[in-house]
Structures are given as C-alpha cells and as structure tokens.
UniProtKB/TrEMBL annotation:
<protein>
    <recommendedName>
        <fullName>BRO1 domain-containing protein BROX</fullName>
    </recommendedName>
</protein>
<dbReference type="InterPro" id="IPR038499">
    <property type="entry name" value="BRO1_sf"/>
</dbReference>
<feature type="domain" description="BRO1">
    <location>
        <begin position="99"/>
        <end position="379"/>
    </location>
</feature>
<dbReference type="Pfam" id="PF03097">
    <property type="entry name" value="BRO1"/>
</dbReference>
<feature type="region of interest" description="Disordered">
    <location>
        <begin position="341"/>
        <end position="379"/>
    </location>
</feature>
<comment type="similarity">
    <text>Belongs to the BROX family.</text>
</comment>
<feature type="compositionally biased region" description="Basic and acidic residues">
    <location>
        <begin position="343"/>
        <end position="372"/>
    </location>
</feature>
<dbReference type="InterPro" id="IPR038898">
    <property type="entry name" value="BROX"/>
</dbReference>
<dbReference type="InterPro" id="IPR004328">
    <property type="entry name" value="BRO1_dom"/>
</dbReference>
Length: 379
C-alpha cells in the first residue's frame, strides 16, 4: 500500500522539554512533566518504526494525550479550559509548504480500518478543536479547512479502494463493483476540487495524484457497468461504456506520467507500474473486444454516440469516518497536581515560545521497498 497511495511528508515537530522551572513547584507537577516528555518521545519514535502496529500506536497516543488533557481541559469536566492551556507552544512543519503487494485479509482489514480512523481523527479536529485556536490557520497550512477536508475525503477514498479490491477478488456482481468505483472516483474528484484554490506551486503534485485516481476509478466504473449492460443484452450500450472506460484509462496513464514529473512534497509513487493498474487495462481491452465480437455475430445493435450516464449508488461498502474522541484525562491529574503548577512564577520573557528563526528538522522516513508485484490479491 505504501507504493500505491500518495503521501505528503510526515509532519516534523520541534522538541518540547516540558520543563517549567518555578511553575512546576511540587513532585506531582514534576512527575506529570516527566511523563509527558517520555510519552511524547515514545509516540514520535513510533512514527518511523517499521515494527509498529496500530495497537502500539493507539496505546502510545492514548498515553500521551491522556496526560496532555490536563493542559487543555478543566479537571471538573466543565466547559472551562485548564489554567495551563497556554503554557506551552508547539511547532510543527507543514506537509505542503515547508508495485501492489499481495496482502492478507487481516492486513487488508487493518488498512481499511486505519484509514477510517484517520478520517475520523481529521474530522474530530476540524469540528471540535481547530475552531478553538487563538490564531486562525493561515491559508494553505495543514489546519486550514481545505486541507483538513481533503485529508478526510482522501482517507475515505483510499479505504474504499480496499473494499473494491476485495469485491473484485470475491467476484461480486459487476453492478456493485461499478457503483463502488463510481463513488470512489467521486471522492477523489471532490478532494481534488477542495484543493483547487490552493497555490499550484505546492498543491500540484497532490492534485495530480487525486486526478489520476479519479480517472482510474471512473474507468473501473465504466468497465464493470459495461459488463452489467452486456448481461442485460444491451450490447451496443456496453460497447459505448467500454469505449469510455478505455478513454479514462488512457487519461489515467497520461496523468501517472505527469504526476511522476511534477515536483512537490512527498515521495513519488508509481501507480502505473502496479499489476492492479495494468490489469484494468487488459480487462477493458478484452471486455470491449468480446462485446464487439458478440455484437457482430448476435446483437447487431447500434452503438450510441453518447456514453451512458453513470448514476450508480452502492447499497453497501461505502466508507464513513470512525468517530474519534481523545482518551480520558490521566488519573495522575488531580486538583493537587494542578495546584502544584504556579503560573505566577512563570518567567516574564517566555522562553516556551519558539523563536522565529528556529527550523524544525524534517522526519527521516524509513525506506520501504515494495514486495514482489503480485497484483491486487487479498487472500
């Protein structure tokens, strides 16, 4: 999956010591600060640990965020913010500015669920936390509405790709596969449209990826819709649908080349080199030839000038974000712990604020070599 889905670079963050000399005036406060420092370090280490699995990531994130909650929310569960809400500034980089291996069924389910969880996290941030920021996100930055919305939609679309691969392998009805592919193409088109007003200098590569995936799954939709039409003895319409699939597949191929030549953030994946991509080309070609043969021998139907309208709706298999909530505040946060932070002793010159000239070092992402290209097999 790493070499099929486009990814912007991992966000890097400046170190945070959680040292509040004078402010953290007692053992409970010191322990909270020490635990925050170690749990944050552990979480960041897992981002580039190839042995990390979703359970490890969730446990590390829960450990850190349960401690961080005491800096955000009041301990009495009221709507008031913690008195420590603004004691610490965090600095992050921005992701834009600054061969498909065979996978097991369990792995496919894990990918599918992880993408739905990611969509839920982005949605939760967009609806519950970003509106509370003191300074609104600048245009084109990661917390800006357009980028967050694009991430939500892309996660949904990529999760649906797993559903489509599974449906093809299980030989589900062509009508269902066509509908799922059509819905997925619409997701990618919507994500691309969301980014359309961003500066091309840093959004062009991402948009090329979204556009090529839109064309690819539109080709899938027309291909399987053509099979449905042929099964209903509408051979002329089936041929026209397959011709449209051929056209969109050719567009996707051209966009793969453009995507590879476009400069921008994130590593370049090679969708056109994957068996999953190439198999569609062969499927379109073979199905179109079959329809043309049968029309010449059996049906003798006129081929419509206009392509059939895809008004397809999948009755199941559509992806929705998994609702997300931060973990409960750590039990280490008690009124006594909070009282041990004395903000009156905070230094006047606030050294916790990042200096303008500070640069955050990029995350060194591990190189992942694709396994042997065995196609879109989910066993």
């Amino acid at each position: 999956m790493t070499h099929w889905f486009h990814r912007n670079p991992l966000k890097a963050t400046a170190p945070v010591s959680f040292n509040y000399y004078g402010v953290a005036s007692g053992p409970p406060a010191s322990k909270i600060c020490n635990d925050l420092r170690s749990s944050r370090t552990r979480l960041l280490e897992l981002f580039t640990d190839l042995s990390c699995n979703p359970e490890m990531m969730k446990n590390a994130a829960d450990s850190y965020f349960s401690l961080l909650q005491g800096f955000i929310n009041s301990l009495d569960e009221s709507t008031q913010e913690s008195k420590l809400r603004y004691i610490q500034n965090f600095k992050w980089t921005d992701t834009l500015q600054g061969q498909v291996p065979s996978i097991t069924e369990d792995e496919a389910k894990e990918v599918h669920r992880s993408l739905k969880i990611a969509a839920g996290i982005f949605k939760h941030l967009k609806e519950s936390h970003i509106p509370k920021l003191i300074t609104p996100a600048e245009k084109g930055r990661d917390l800006e509405a357009r980028l967050i919305e694009a991430y939500i939609i892309q996660c949904q679309a990529e999760a649906q790709e797993v559903t489509i691969a599974r449906a093809i392998e299980l030989k589900h009805a062509p009508g269902l596969i066509a509908a799922l592919a059509y819905e997925t193409a619409n997701f990618y088109q919507k994500a691309d449209h969301t980014l359309s007003s961003l500066e091309p200098a840093y959004s062009a590569k991402w948009r090329k990826y979204l556009h090529l995936k839109m064309c690819f799954y539109t080709a899938y939709a027309y291909c399987y819709h053509g099979q449905t039409l042929l099964a209903s003895d509408k051979c002329g319409e089936a041929i026209r649908s397959l011709q449209e699939a051929e056209k969109f597949y050719a567009k996707a191929e051209a966009l793969c080349k453009e995507y590879g030549e476009t400069k921008g953030p994130g590593p370049t994946v090679k969708p056109s080199g994957h068996l999953f991509f190439r198999k569609l080309g062969n499927l379109v070609k073979n199905t179109l030839e079959k329809c043309q043969r049968e029309n010449g021998f059996i049906y003798f139907q006129k081929i419509p000038m206009e392509a059939p309208q895809l008004e397809l709706k999948a009755n199941y298999g559509l992806v929705e974000p998994v609702p997300f909530e931060f973990p409960p505040t750590s039990a280490h946060w008690t009124p006594e712990t909070l009282a041990a932070f004395d903000l009156t002793k905070r230094p006047k010159d606030d050294s916790t604020k990042p200096k303008p000239e500070e640069e955050v070092k990029p995350v060194k992402e591990p190189g992942i070599k694709p396994q042997k290209d065995t196609g879109c097999s989910i066993s």
